[in-house]
What does this fold into?
Amino acid sequence: MSKFSFVNYAKESYTELMQKVSWPTWSELQSSAIVVSIASLIIAAVVYLMDISFRTILENFYRLF
It folds into this structure.
């Protein structure tokens, strides 16, 4: 890749990021962050409950032998 191609790529990337990309407002960003945080907590809780359930099931199964 020649130097000219890289400079052209950088200029086009900058133009696209500054003029064509729709950036979220601060309030949209905050609400999205809250949604992602809540979803992450819910998924973490589900994984934790599955872990405890499987551990309990396996402990009871191994006690049989």
